Each structure stands twice: as C-alpha cells, then as structure tokens.
C-alpha cells in the first residue's frame, strides 16, 4: 500500500546524512534533487523499484501519476518541480517534497545534501515553480536519465560548456555566458564570451581563478588560460583555439562533475 509518510520518512532519514551529486546520484551516500524524489516515491510505494529519471521525467508524469495543483492547494506529500518543461535539465530544474504547505525537503547543491527549507526561494529564485499531487501509484513512464546535461566533447568553448562551469562552481546567473570579457586574440575563440571594454569580468571566471590559485580579476586572459591548461595537463600556450584540447579535457571533467 502506498504511503506519503513512508515517502517522507525516506527523505528525513537522509537529512544531513548524504551529499549532493549529479554524477553519483544513485545513493546510498549521495543523490541529486530528482533521484532523491524518485527513491522517496519508490519507498512510499508510489513507483515500482528501479524507476528513475529527472525533472523532465516528472513533468512527463503530469496527467498520469501526478496532477498539477496551485501553490495554495499544497499539502504534505505534494511535490514541486521548478523549471520549464522541455528545458529543465541541469541547473534549469529542481524538485522536492512538501512536509506542509510552508516547508519542504529537497536534495540541493546549496546545502550539499538533503535539507528542509521554509522559503520558496530555495526552490530556485530564477525558475517557475510547478506543484503536483500524487494521484496514482505503480508503474510510470520513467527513463533513467540523469539530471545533469552531458556535454559533447567537441573542444569548443560554447554556451553549454560555460553553463556547466557555472553549475560546477554554483555561481549566480547560470546563463551560459562568460560576461564582460576584453577581446584579444588569445580569447576570441571563447564562443560563450560577452565582449566589452568594461574590464568588469565574470563571476565564473573569478571562481575558476580562485580554484586555480591565481589572481581573481574575472578576465579570461593568457595567465588564466595557461593556468587552466597546466591544471588540465595540456599544452600551455595561453591561447584558446577554435577546437581546443584543453576545452576537450575540461568538458570531459565537467561530465564527470569533477575538476
């Protein structure tokens, strides 16, 4: 027999006891937002063992296993899914389970694990929120797809690579744009760059520079490029080529969620 309480017990038992990971998402020591919800629904008897997916999978369950409701209707055991159906993978989606109308439990990057929050902002401040009630149990059209977007290893520093880097360092505004860069020959092939003459720099570049242990000016200059190339074990010429060996290694490491 299905049980909302058993579903919530599964989440509460792991509160503060596990970490967040998009790559090691199948437990028992780490989960991501969507895998934790699927495991909890299985524990509650709402899904069959082995069911798994991501926020897109949850959106796809609307009208069968899930019924969309308003925020005001939310009660214990209801689910939120943040994002836009069709484009909610990676950091463009989030999910969790309500403990009451005013609190919810979720596995988040911010908390590095499962935690309880009472502010809707923790569902994501930049994404639309959708609310669902579980209306049926048993089988569902699940697909075992991870929450994380997998990059093509093409060596091109485009918007998807920039966005995964923003997700990795959890910087504000995960828009896939390397903002406020000063265009020169060595960085002109960073296709995700927004070039201007402000010298303001980018938060994700600052995060990368801090990680590399170099000056944090937010600008993707030759020293930053050399530092990245050195860290990744590629040729240190301080130049990002249209198809770059360093970017290929970077993409491969981001797919593993481990720099």
Describe this structure in words.
- With 259 residues, the chain is α+β, with helices and mostly antiparallel strands.
- The chain folds into two domains: 4-134, endopeptidase fold (from Nostoc punctiforme), CATH 3.90.1720.10; 159-255, no CATH class.
- The protein contains seven helices and ten strands.
- It has helices at 4-13, 33-43, 55-60, 159-169, 203-212, 222-232, 245-255; strands at residues 19-20, 30-31, 66-69, 79-83, 93-100, 103-108, 113-117, 129-134, 178-181, 193-195.
- The protein has a six-stranded antiparallel beta sheet with strand order 3-8-4-5-6-7. A two-stranded parallel ribbon has the order 1-2. A two-stranded parallel ribbon has the order 9-10.
- Strand 6 (103-108) and strand 7 form a beta hairpin.
- Helix 1 (4-13) packs across helix 2.
- The chain is elongated, with a radius of gyration of 20 Å.
- It comes from Lactococcus lactis.
- Belongs to the peptidase C40 family.
- InterPro entries: Lysozyme-like_dom_sf (IPR023346), NLP_P60_dom (IPR000064), Papain-like_cys_pep_sf (IPR038765), PGBDSf (IPR036366), Phage_lysin (IPR008044).
């Amino acid at each position: 027999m299905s049980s909302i309480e058993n579903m919530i017990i599964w989440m509460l038992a792991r509160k503060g006891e596990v970490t967040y990971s998009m790559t090691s998402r199948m437990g028992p020591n780490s989960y991501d937002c969507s895998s934790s919800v699927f495991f909890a629904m299985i524990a509650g008897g709402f899904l069959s063992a082995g069911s798994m997916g991501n926020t897109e999978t949850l959106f796809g369950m609307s009208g069968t296993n899930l019924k969309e409701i308003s925020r005001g209707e939310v009660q214990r055991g209801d689910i939120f899914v943040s994002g836009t159906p069709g484009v909610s993978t990676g950091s463009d989606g989030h999910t969790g389970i309500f403990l009451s109308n005013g609190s919810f439990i979720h596995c988040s990057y911010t908390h590095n694990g499962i935690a309880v929050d009472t502010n809707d902002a923790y569902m994501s401040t930049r994404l639309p929120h959708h609310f669902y009630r579980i209306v049926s149990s048993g089988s569902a059209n699940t697909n075992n797809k991870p929450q994380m977007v997998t990059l093509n290893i093409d060596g091109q520093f485009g918007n998807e690579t920039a966005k995964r880097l923003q997700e990795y360092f959890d910087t504000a505004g995960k828009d896939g744009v390397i903002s406020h860069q000063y265009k020169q020959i060595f960085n002109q092939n960073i296709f995700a760059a927004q070039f201007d003459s402000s010298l303001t720099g980018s938060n994700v570049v600052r995060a990368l520079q801090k990680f590399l242990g170099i000056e944090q000016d937010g600008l993707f200059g030759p020293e930053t490029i050399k530092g990245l190339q050195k860290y990744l074990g590629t040729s240190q010429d301080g130049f990002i080529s249209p198809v770059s060996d360093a970017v290929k290694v970077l993409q491969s490491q981001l797919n593993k969620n481990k720099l």
